[in-house]
Structure formats: C-alpha cells, structure tokens
Amino acid sequence: MNKQILGYKCKKCGHVQYPYHSRCKKCGHTEWRGFDIVFDTAPLPQDGKLLTFTHLYALPPDFEAVTVSFGIVELSDGHRITGQLKIEAPKIGMKVQGKVELVRQEGYTKHWGLVFYSAA
Amino acid sequence: MRDVYVVGIGITSFTRLDYPLAEIAAYPALQAMQDAGLDKVDHVYVANMGGGRVSNQTALGSAVVDHLCLWPVGAETIENGPASGASAIKTGAMAIASGMMDTVLVTGAERMNEVNSLEATDFVATLAHPMAERIYGVTLPALAGMFTRLYMERYGVTSRHLAMVAIKNHANACLNQFAHVQNKISMDGILDGKDASHNNPVIADPLRFFDICPVSDGGAAVILASAEVAKKLGKPLVKLAGFGQATDTHAVHEREDPTALTAVRLAADKAFKMAKLKPADVDVAELHDAFTILEIAESEEVGFFEKGKGHLALERGETALNGKLPINTSGGLKARGHAVGATGIAQAHEIVLQLRGDAKKRQVKDAKVGFTCNFGGFGNNVVCLAMVRE
Amino acid sequence: MSVDVESILRTVDHELPPFPPKVIMLATGEPMVIRQASRDEIPDILPHVEALIHHDRDFYDVVAARVYSELLGHFKHRYQDQYLLVAQCDGHLAAVVNGRAVDAKTGMSLHTLGLRRGLRAGAHAFAAKMEYHFDQLGHQEVLIVAESPIGFRRWMIEYKLEKRFEIPHELGGCPSWSLTRALFDRARGSLVVGSRPVGKELLAKAMAAILPPTDPPKMAPDFLAATRARYDSTGTAIIARTQK
After folding, report:
1. Where does the pLDDT of residue A16 fall: very low under 50, low under 70, confident under 90, or very high at 90 and above?
2. pLDDT digits (tens, 9 = 90+) for B233-279
3. How many interface pairs between A and B have CB atoms less than 8 angstroms apart?
4. Nearest-CA residue of chain C relative to B185?
5. Percent of chain A beyond pLDDT 90?
6. Cβ separation of B20 and C191 shorter than 8 Å?
7. Structural domain boundaries, residue B83
8. Which residue in B200, B234, B252, B242 sits closest to B380, CA to CA?
9. What percent of chain B has pLDDT over 90?
10. What is this model's ipTM?
11. Domain spans, chain A
12. Between these two residues, C188 and B149, which has the higher pLDDT value?
C-alpha cells in the first residue's frame, strides 16, 4: 500500500491543517457527527523545499544508527512538515522529494513518516 | 489584586544527587523557610517533570508536604515541562494575589540520576509533538539544531557567537558553588584549536557539545508572601512585580516563522506590562540557555536587543558579568545546570540573590530590577517573571 | 643452594617499545601531555588513584580499585607485559591509562581513569593507548570492556566496536568487545587528535614529576544530609540507591 501523510480539511472553511488539531486552527470550527469529530482528509504533497536541517549524533537509545538527519520542509502546497533526510550534503532551499518509510521502531511499535531525498 | 513578595530562597547543588526526589525538593524548601523565618506556610506547589516516569514518584506535592511535616496544608505538583519551575511560581503568585493565601512555598526538584543521558534526552523528547516530531527520533537538541541553522543563515550568528555564550556562562558558574559545571573553557579549546573538534564534538549540527546544557539533578525553592507578611518578616523586600505566560504551536514547523519565539515575546510583554517596566529597566537577567543559541534568541525576543542583533551585544560584552546587562550570572542552564523542574525556580533564586545584594563574587552592582525567562517545550510554553527590589 | 622464589614469582616481561609522547589542547585551552610512565613512577601515581577507591559515582570506585591493584602488581612484577601512559596538565596528573600485550597480534585494554572531569581527558588518553597498541605494538586487535556507562558510550559506540563475546575479558571475565585495526583506522580522523613532537619545555615539565591532580573527582557537597536518613538501613535513601 502506498502510505501517505494526511492533511485535515475543515468541513466549514476548507482550511487544511497538519498536524491534526481537534478543531480547525483557522476558524475554530468543530464538525460533529454524533460523538465523532470529522474532518475531510487529503494526502499532503511530498515534494517541496528544505527550510532547515540538522544531523543528530545523540540519538534516542532505540536507534542503532550513529547519526540521523532531520529537516523541516516547506511542501509544494505551503504546508510545513518535519521529516528525516537521506541527503548526503543538504542545503537550505534545495528541492526535495519525500517518501513515506519506516522511520522508527520502538519495541514492537513501528512508526511511519516522511523521508526526504534530493530532488535535483 | 494584591502585591506578591519573595521572602525566602533555597537551593541544592545542581549535580548528580543520590537522594530521593522528595528530599531534593524538601531540602531547599527548608532552607527557604529558614531564610524567611517561617515554620509554616498556607500552601505548597512543587514543580517537577519526570517524577512519575523517571523517579517512580508520583504525587510529589504530597510527598514533599510529608517530608516537611506541613500537614494539613494543600499541595499540588505542577508539571509544565522545562518551564514547570516558573509555572509553579506563577501559580503561587496568583494564589497570593487573589487573597486566598498569605504565604506559599514553591519548590522544584528533578532527579535524572536513574537514567543515562541518552535516556534522559529521550524522556525530555516526550514533550515534542508525538506524531509530527517524536516518531522521527527528533529530540530537543535536534529541534534546537534546526533552529540554530536557520538563525545563522538569517542573522549571521556563527559558531563563534555560540561558543562565546558557553565561555561566558562557564566563567560565571565558576563563581557559583552550586553550579554543575565549574570549568573555565577557552575559544582555543572548544573552537579554534587543532584538537577542538574532539573536545567539542558535533551533537546536533551545527550545535556542539559545549552548546548544550548538562542534565542535572537539583532542587530550588522560593517562599512567596503578601505585602503584609513580607513587611513583618523584615527581609529585604523583593517584589514579584510581574509574570506572564504564553503558548505556541506544539510542532515547531507549524509556526509562521520558525526562527520567531513568539511565546517568549508575548510572555515577556505580559510580565513587563504587569510590572509597569520596560526591558531597558532590567539590571540582571536569567534566560533559559538550554542551548547557547537560546540565550541569544531570547535576549532579542524579551526586548533587550533588536531581533537579529543579540549576538552583536554579546560580542560587545554587554551581557557579561561586568557588562551593561549581565545575563545568566549563575552560569545559566549551560553551566549552573538544568534540573528540569527546578530550573525556573533556580533562575528566580539567582535574581533574588542579586537583588538582595547577596550574590558575592558574581554580584551585579546596584541591581534593582531582575528578569527571568523559563522556556518550556521548544518554545511552546514560556513563563517570564519580573522582580524589583524595593 | 636456596631457590630464588622471587624469580619464580616474577612475570617474564617482554621489552615493549616506547610510546612517542604527544600533546593535546583541552577545552580550557591548556596543553595536556600524554606520555609513557615508567615502573619507577608508579608510587607517585598510586596515592591519587587510592583517593578515588571510595568515590561511589560513575563506577570510579571499581575502576580506581582495579587500577590500583594493576599498578601495584606491575610495580611488584606481578602483572605481565603491562604498560602505563599518563596524561598531565602542567605536570599535574589528568588521566591514567594502562593495558597489556597478550601476544604479537592481540592487546588487552585495561583501564582508563580520568582525574579531571568534563574535558574528555580520559577519552584523549584512551585514544592514545589505542594508538600505542596499533602503531607501536603492532597489534591487529585490542580487546576492551567497559565498567561504566560512560565508558560504554565512549568506546563501544563512538568507535563502533565489534563483539567478541566468546572471549572472556581479563577484567572480571566479562564478554569482550574488539577494536580492530580497520575500525581504528576509520576513527583516526575524528577521535584521535593531538600533535607530535611535544615541545621541549612542555615535555621536560611533564617528565620532571607527576604532580597531584588539580581538580580530582569529588562528591558533591553533602547539603542534603539535614533531611535524609543516610545511615538508617531502612531509610529511603537506601531504597533510592537500590532502585538504580
């Protein structure tokens, strides 16, 4: 299955937010369906430009790698997202392409998230 | 609304302490009670972050009251991440301002001794956004690393400026017997010299080892009182003239400008407004330098310097112990140490010492107005305090 | 004719090549000299090691007690093929490292004892002893164990050591880790620093005498004694200790 990161679209004003908040960040609306709060969901684009990044050498104990790179990416629709980078020498402003991959495994729990590659 | 005064202070060494968490909170509390000349208080607030998860001690407020034999006064634990300390002071101040209480003990403690530094960092990372940040392995140093890179790119801050903060705060800590790290460091040793890269390895590029605060155990306490009580006790009058708090988005990437620490600016504005003061009135400040970059960025956001100019003031030596506006005279989190729940109270402890004129070798001359900024999350929950010597 | 018992008890030491001294600048800006110490200098070092035997923090007690016994054993010819390097700042002892040549191919790393904390003095001294194993003794691998979490992070993780768990290490029989020549060569650029030769004056100062450490590890001031029951065996402090 092609995994995606979802944006949450307000039923009233149409604003798309990521990450999830329990009500619309822009207009404050909550759409109730019985006891459920509902948003329309739409996958976020996965391409964008790199805003900033770091190479972390002191990783949480469940990581085996010596270093992992992280970055904040401005996606092509203007949303921003934090993800891992698999880019040799990242540069601020470079074009990147993301892919949803396994980013962390804590015990039996698997976390999936965006990993960005150079789009050049 | 009634005025609030700080009438007693106490602190432990910030280091590794082999004592139960409740004792680390009780010890400075006793010192503070002795300092104030009180043997009871009306209420107790205890600031702590990791008690439940790291130290196997929940309901710390009750445990501390028990240690201090203060039954049956009310007590709560206040948890607001790394800003727990100032949050607890703010809560205590509101209790006094409201007229509900006349004396409040606010004590904070943290004990990370049980876990190694990687586990401690992982624990602190639980305050990051669970789905948008933490699942990737993002820790506080990683968020700070990304913040620093953008700051450097935009404002011309360099590794040299960061090292200057560390060198200054290490030197200040050498004058503080309670500080965690009492080593004088030099530019040659951590940046310029041939062996500097090994002495000062990269942790979260561009942040290096000496840009990041240690994980400390420690406790600190203050006693707050109404004007009536404070005047009776006869201690030098230090008024908690203003406090302010503000929050921001949980995920750092969601902020309009990721280099803006909006919550710091808003919390400081509120504190200054309440105290009827301006940033220029401040004589001495303790800012939350968990990472060296934060001292620079916060010094701008709270209004001491223009945005993007904080590093220039640092270059000119204005924030040094003998400068115009000494920052982190205690050594800051960088060198006094960061005992998470106690940090905000340790900052207030230092300001009260300075305003009383009791800071000995690191005394700032004629300090009348002091300011603290306690930074929770990565800037998503910030509490600022303004204090005035009367 | 009487039997010379001492000659039976004594180790049969091989001649080990000298370690070329080097100098490293610490974070404080001071130069730290790392050099080989001779057997005759051991009595000058022992008192500073002994002081740490009761330092119950970060396994300083275990490491100091063992270093003490190894150095004493070496001094009295009861520890075969041991070498000893010392790190000094202006003559003052900053770190002690020792190890042993097992055979022509294998080295056994013994201990790293930092006498100044927070400045990576121990890490520099450890790197120097690995240099000695590979560059002077010509070993192909060095067997290592860590006795403290700090050591584990430094050696096992930073150097990315390989497991040799089938070999019990001489220190307590724990499973060994191995630093191979290939791993060490990879780490040279980042973990092995310092320069040679050491300036004449600097070296002369270091050789002249081993002075006491300026800032040895010490327990935090016992400010909490007032509120806790440290000496009460049923006391909470003991519970906190055993939970660690």
Report:
1. very high
2. 989 999 999 999 999 999 999 999 989 999 999 999 999 999 999 99
3. 109
4. C28
5. 83
6. no
7. 4-114+215-233
8. B252
9. 89
10. 0.95
11. 6-43, 47-118
12. B149
Q: Please indicate, yes or no, if residue C2 is contained in any of the structural domains.
A: no
Mean pLDDT of C165-181: 93
Cα–Cα distance, B328 to B374 (Å, whole number): 12
Residue B196 lies in a domain: no
Q: Does position C230 have pLDDT exceeding 50, yes or no?
A: no
CATH number of residue B97's parent domain? 3.40.47.10
- Whether B336 is covered by a domain: the verdict is no
Q: What's the CA gap between C154 and C17, in Å, rounded?
A: 27
Mean pLDDT lowest for which of B159-168, C54-63, C216-225?
C216-225
Sort out which chain A residues have CB atoms less than 8 A from B204's CB and list them. Answer: 54-58
Give ∠ CA B68-B226-B25 in degrees, rounded to 5: 25
Residue in chain B lying closest to C187 (CA): B198
Q: Looking at residue C241, what is its pLDDT?
A: 43
Q: What is the residue range of C201's domain?
A: 8-215
Topology of the domain covering A47-118: OB fold (Dihydrolipoamide Acetyltransferase, E2P) (2.40.50)
8 Å CB contact of B20 and C240: yes
From chain B residues 305-364, the ones with a CB under 8 A of any chain C CB are: none
Q: How many domains does chain C have?
A: 1
User: A99 by DSSP, 3-state: which?
Assistant: strand
| Domain membership flag for residue C38 | yes
Query: pLDDT grade, residue C119 (50/70/90)?
Result: confident
Note the pLDDT of residue C226.
41
Residues of B with CB under 8 A from a CB of A: 117-119, 121-122, 125, 129, 131-133, 135-139, 141-142, 145-150, 153, 201-207, 250-254, 258
Query: What is d(CA B193, CA B195) in angstroms, rounded to the nearest whole number?
Result: 5
The C-alpha atoms of residue B372 and residue B86 are separated, in whole angstroms, by 9
> In this complex, do B138 and A70 lie within 8 Å of one another by their Cβ atoms?
yes
Is C222 contained in some domain? Answer: no
B341 within domain boundaries: no
Helices B140-155 + B292-301 axis angle, to 10: 60
User: How many angstroms separate the CA of residue C33 from the nearest CA in chain B?
Assistant: 13
Return the CATH number at C157. 3.40.630.30
Domain total in chain B: 1
The per-residue pLDDT for range C57-90, each reduced to its tens digit, is 778 889 999 999 999 999 999 999 999 999 999 9
The beta-carbon neighbor of B195 closest among C24, C239, C240 is C24
Q: Residue B102: inside a domain, yes or no?
A: yes
State how far the Cα of B174 lies from the Cα of B171, in Å rounded to an integer: 5
C-alpha B236/C-alpha A9 separation (Å) is: 57
DSSP string, B31-71: HHHHHHT-S--SEEEEE-SSTTTTSS---HHHHHHHHTT-T
A3, C95, C128, C219 from C215: Cα distances, Å = 56, 11, 22, 12
